[in-house]
Amino acid sequence: GCGTTNSPGGQQNSGGTGQVGATVPLLTSPFWQAYNNYVPKMATEAGVQALPTVNANSDPAKLITDMTNLLNQGVKGLVVTPLDSAAVVAGLAQADRKGVPVVAVDVAPESGKVAMVVRADNRAYGTKACEHIGEKVKQGKVVQIQGDLASVNGRDRSEAFRECMTGKFPGIQILDLPAEWKAEKASSGLESLLTANPDVKGVYMQAGGVYLAPTLQALRRKDLLHPVGDPRHVVAVSNDGIPQEFEAIRKGEIDATVSQPADAYAKYGMYWIKKAMAGETFKAGPTDHGSTIVEVRPGILEDQLPAPLVTKANVDDKALWGNQL
Amino acid sequence: MSAPAAPVVEALGITRRFGPTTALHDVGITVRPGESHALVGRNGAGKSTLVSVLTGLSKPDSGTVSFNGEPAPPVADREAWRQRVACVYQHSTVIPELTVAENLFLNRQPSRRGVIRWSALRREAAELLAAWGVDVSVDALAGELDVEQRQLVEIARALSYGARFIILDEPTAQLDSHAIARLFERMHQLQSAGVTFLFISHHLQEVYEVCQAVTVLRDARHIVTAPVGDLSRSQLVDAMTGESGGLAVADGAEREPLPDNASVALSVRGLSGAGFADVSFRLRRGEVLGLAGSNASGKHQVAETVYGLRKPDAGAVEVGGVPLKPGDVLAALHAGIGCVPRSRHDQGLVLGMSIGDNATMSVLDRLGPAGFAAPKAVRGKGTTAIAEYGVVAKDADQPVSDLSGGNQQKVVMARALANDPDVLIMINPTAGVDVKSKQALLAVADRVRAEGKAVLIVSDELDDLRPCDRVLVMRAGILAAEHPAGWADGELVASIEGVELDGD
Amino acid sequence: MATETAAPQRIRLARLRDLALLPALAVVVLIGGLVNDRFLSTDNLVAVLGASAALALVVLGETLVLLTGKFDLSLESTVGIAPAIGALLAIPAASGIGWFDSPLPSWLAILAVLVVGAIVGLFNGFLVVKLQLNAFIVTLAMLIILRGLLVGSTEGKTLFQMPDAFFALATNTFLGLPISVWLAGVAYLVAGFLLRYHRIGRALYAIGGNAQAARAAGIRVDRIAWSVFIVAGVLAAIGGLIQTGYVGALSAGQGDRMIFTVFAAAVIGGISLDGGKGTLFGALTGVLLLGVVDNLLTAAQVPSFWIQAVYGAVILGALMLARVTSGKAQT
Amino acid sequence: MATETAAPQRIRLARLRDLALLPALAVVVLIGGLVNDRFLSTDNLVAVLGASAALALVVLGETLVLLTGKFDLSLESTVGIAPAIGALLAIPAASGIGWFDSPLPSWLAILAVLVVGAIVGLFNGFLVVKLQLNAFIVTLAMLIILRGLLVGSTEGKTLFQMPDAFFALATNTFLGLPISVWLAGVAYLVAGFLLRYHRIGRALYAIGGNAQAARAAGIRVDRIAWSVFIVAGVLAAIGGLIQTGYVGALSAGQGDRMIFTVFAAAVIGGISLDGGKGTLFGALTGVLLLGVVDNLLTAAQVPSFWIQAVYGAVILGALMLARVTSGKAQT
Ligand SMILES: Nc1ncnc2c1ncn2[C@@H]1O[C@H](COP(=O)(O)OP(=O)(O)OP(=O)(O)O)[C@@H](O)[C@H]1O
Ligand SMILES: Nc1ncnc2c1ncn2[C@@H]1O[C@H](COP(=O)(O)OP(=O)(O)OP(=O)(O)O)[C@@H](O)[C@H]1O
Ligand SMILES: O[C@@H]1[C@@H](O)[C@H](O)OC[C@H]1O
Ligand SMILES: [Mg+2]
Ligand SMILES: [Mg+2]
Description:
The complex is a heterotetramer, with 1 copy of chain A, 1 copy of chain B and 2 copies of chain C. By secondary structure, chain A is of the alpha/beta class. In chain A, 38% of the residues lie in helices and 22% in strands. Chain A contains 9 helices and 17 strands. In chain A, helix 1 packs parallel to helix 9 and helix 6 (183-196) runs parallel beside helix 7. The two termini of chain A are 30 Å apart. Chain B folds into 4 domains: 9-94 and 145-241, 3-Layer(aba) Sandwich (Rossmann fold), CATH 3.40.50; 95-144, no CATH class; 262-336 and 421-498, Rossmann fold, CATH 3.40.50; 349-420, no CATH class. Chain B is built from 17 helices and 22 strands. In chain B, the strands form 5 sheets. Chain B has a 6-stranded mixed sheet with strand order 6-9-10-3-11-12, with helices on both faces. A 6-stranded mixed sheet of chain B has the order 18-19-20-15-21-22, sandwiched between helices. A 4-stranded antiparallel sheet of chain B has the order 2-1-4-5, covered by helices on one side. In chain B, a hairpin with a 2-residue loop joins strand 11 and strand 12 (221-227). The model of chain B has no long low-confidence stretch (mean pLDDT 90). Chain C has helices spanning 2-19, 21-35, 42-67, 75-90, 106-130, 135-154, 165-171, 179-197, 199-209, 211-216, 221-247, 258-268, 280-299, 307-326, and strands spanning 173-174, 177-178. In chain C, strand 1 and strand 2 form a beta hairpin. Chain C is globular. The two termini of chain C are 28 Å apart. Residues 1-13 of chain C have low confidence and may be disordered. Chains C and D meet through helix 6, helix 12 and helix 14 of C and helix 6, helix 12 and helix 14 of D. The complex binds adenosine-5'-triphosphate (ATP) (2 copies), beta-D-ribopyranose (RIP) and magnesium ion (2 copies). Residues 43-44, 48, 90-91, 170, 173, 345, 401-405, 408, 432 of chain B line the site of one adenosine-5'-triphosphate. Chains C, D: It is found in: Cell membrane. Chains C, D: Keywords: Cell membrane, Membrane, Sugar transport, Transmembrane, Transmembrane helix, Transport. Chains C, D: It comes from Crossiella cryophila.
């Protein structure tokens, strides 16, 4: 297959069978909830015997404990969703000691042994959002509603967004709103900012799953919710790709969103773990599903799944996971 | 003559258990209309428990209560109980964070269509207190009153319910003689107006002073009920203790006078602080000194300052000729002072901890090497204390919260003496303590004196002061008089109250 | 007599406790006005109030519980679960998430929100008042259970599809203020009035101050303490409804960690964790202080990495200022 | 005499308080063994211990503070900030995140971790004991400040480039158990011994039971209460170090929300929030119960959407069981 090499009878630990443990980082975000629902479905499709998912509840230490517990239960493969690129390494080491292959989803570990990383580029989300907003706004103030500053995804998005803005759109001033993935912080914070700066021209929501509704509510309260095309329209770009974001795009309430592929995360997580359990090893190059494997750090291969920017033009695309629920 | 009216209250066959403890065993009591009926017994005899049954606060396991010949209302109907009986409980029932006015009218605040009328409330409260001669602002928080004021407020409140039957559970334990006199005067007035009292006290002379009948409880059982005239004081004590033999408290007047060369154990010079000024006295080895005065005289503050519980504004304290660091209890302990503090519940005991723990609390650094205080050593000291002070308890591991008031006081005494002090300060040492225990506690003071140490007894109870070689009297914060042993009761009382007697 | 002169001064101090936060609040508002010229605009003040309404109601509930000397940590979860159950009753099953094919009418669903709050309070009260379990740990367990039920019953999904009535409290306005703000205002006035002028209100203080004494005075201690849990649950449910409207959706994380803020507001507002002490006015100043600081820090664009530290420092500063101005040790 | 018969039962009850959790723990372990045959394997039991070591140390610190009748919420933030500052001192600036070009040697950096814990405790103690500010709200403010400082000083980045010494506690083993477990075990033994056999330990109980009486017995109440804050800070710092080693990195969220678990463990273990009551043995059973339940729920394959609700329900169940077996109201 593309991007894979069959290892000739390498460390065949279970012949590709046995139970697989899967984690989720948190369940209070619609995005991860969708992922959580895709896991058993995609596992069945791939013929992988997955245990019920385990929720780390935003606690990196709990993730390590969960991994330990799963390994002690004798799983033969792990599909983990690290909360952080570094704060998973101890878990990876344990899996390695037991010869259990690991696929990491959403976050690439800093080091340690993983068979494959399945993720879309979070920096690219920030850049895409910046470009879309920058093109339309050019000059003026833009709010970015940040995630939890202690989370790697939120940080990547923030940094990329800011870098891109300063580089490409020097006329734009960014107002930061750290909202910790929390709806009410987004709502009240945005209202404060809009009151202090009635001339805000654009908003970047780093997590549409949490921030879409409060953003729209705040805009509505400040009487700034005008459809795309209206000169008073505040450009809004979101991130995640849940159905409600698509709905808002259709209505012209927001301009675009980056679809973070929950389905593909689950699907290729299972796809790679199955192969890894069968003893296959992989190398950089194109895959059989249109993506490319990149060696992001020595020894760490990443299947970089596409995360399409969804606008009015492609919002009805059936291939988007947000249109399949 | 008409048939005798039904008793105001009649309790029959009352049994009340707390877990395995039987606090009341088949106890009965009958209180006749218009009388003042005393209820006496040693600490833990069951008096307060009987009170809580008679006021409907706790339901007996068996037995019946009736008022004026009718069965008592159901326990849930507090209102009905309150019309039949009012009570000053032994333990404070004020709400510290609420004002005096509100405490007086809690849950019956004057209101119009459900809206409390604060001005009326304050006015009625002021009237109530004025009628009682209680000199307290109705706007003061109850928690900031001193013990006497608080007690008076509680008494005024109990009387204001309009019940014709009033229970007073040790109302005089914390009052000074002035306040007690006022209370008795009031009781007389009410009694002539037809109010009936049930009165509990460990001061037996009070029983003879205000009561017509007396009931004795012992070990949860009813022993005797009789007109006070029918029981002599020693018969009463025998009934309470279950053994014969009167009371003997050492009297300072019967001792040899101190040798002139007795060295000075404690010297207080020009001590001033909140509530007292320029107090000086010397206490010699082998001497028992009394410090008397009303609650407002500042005597407690002086004693607490000497022990380091308070910082003085001016003046100095020397122990055995060595100046003492002010405001430092530990320094006082190391200098050889021991102290029975004013309130055993506030300062004397950690109720949740054992007898051993409490008895050793002031000497934790002396139980073993490097600060070790092995449970064995603690228990050992506790066991010794139990034997030495006659504490009625199962063993040294028993939490002091389990003990009766008098026995708790003995543990405080053990703590004060744990460091084998050269100077023993005892503040209100026998408050709330039964006659027999009082005797035991004062005997300790005498024994300590006999060992050549010095004792300072801070109290206004004559019984407490009797063992003293001399008594200093404070009034309004200053030393006002000195009485050598052999004083007459009336003379000392007058001195404490600041009333001049003719021909002294 | 010594105490007589002491008394009036003491009282002044006791009252000061409730006003203790005003100087701090004034300082923050002043700084706000200097830093940002729109800070004192009507718009912004309305925004602060609108953002604080939900918190204010939950703080009200918690304050009542604290006054009786108990604890309720689970209110934060009620903020999430109560409106969620209402929403699940009101959203048609066809949309993939509701419970019934023909869902309840809005008014009934909203009533259900309140009922859920009441039931949670009833259960807490049962465990704490009747079974005499430790309030802290019981309501912590309830917090976890209810949060879990919320995640479980919505499968983590955010609910968007509720009828408009669910959003009305936060979105509709009257005389320029959101209904939620009026509601919170009225709730504080009514509760504040009852606490000061009604026997039931005074009973709360009595119970928190000395439950045994309250019982001796004929106050039905258990019944009232239990009722307070129920009232607090209902208030938290209303707070949750307001939050839902304010945010425009109901995520499974609604109310998460809110209890810290609730306690912070109540306690810096002078409510004692030991019971029986504090007033609603104090609690309200606590809520407003937090709301104003939040607003101010965001508008001032304190670098986002440092905003939390500054927020904590401002609370600590306010606390110390309150300590100095009221001159009293805090409990 | 009546009291004499009462005594033995009272004492038995007082001791039962500390053992109250054992039946619940036994039931959970039993269920674990039935549900999953690997549950009682050495591997799994070691895993439970390893996962609980950090929590155990923080609970130890909190227990000491609670025994004296105070509160410290900020311990959860110390778990993050203390090792973070040590790490920033030990990582070369060249790596883009450390503070010094030539960083401190590991041992000095680890000493710094402890010192940071001590300083935080010192500051808390100053505010609570000296200035007599409310412990709950002071340490809540500190919690927020320290969390903010952590996010600010790391710019939210996760630290993982520390020298190996930072990970040694959790990764190195001795006789099959991680050093962290030995350390926690020794800490509990020593502290438990001091609490029972040393005057300082007895003084903690006395202070928590009745500070006024303790003062009147010559115990230096303020000095000891203050010291306890410092000790708790140091223990939390060590807990943080263990956590760092356990996770293999130090994220800016380390310790986040931990304080709930800390209180849960201490309180279900019989430590009273009113002070002066409870033992370390009880607290330890609380820690183990939570660790075992956590492990069990994963092993029992409870669906993730419901796992939290079940966790809460188990805690509540354990609490009720403890109530029944000890037969005592809980405070
Ligand atoms: N709430 C309770 N729980 C358990 N035992 C109790 C309780 N109240 C009282 N007792 C027990 O009942 C007995 C009687 O107590 P009670 O308070 O009636 O004594 P008392 O005669 O009032 O003593 P004192 O003179 O010290 O006030 C005591 O031995 C005590 O141990
Ligand atoms: N929780 C309890 N358990 C067992 N016995 C109790 C308890 N509380 C009180 N008692 C008993 O009730 C009786 C009276 O209480 P207590 O000893 O506190 O009165 P006291 O010391 O005389 O009070 P005061 O100093 O206020 O006059 C005692 O016999 C005591 O044993
Ligand atoms: O990456 C995630 C974001 O997209 C989601 O919506 O919320 C939580 C984050 O972990
Ligand atoms: Mg009594
Ligand atoms: Mg007594």
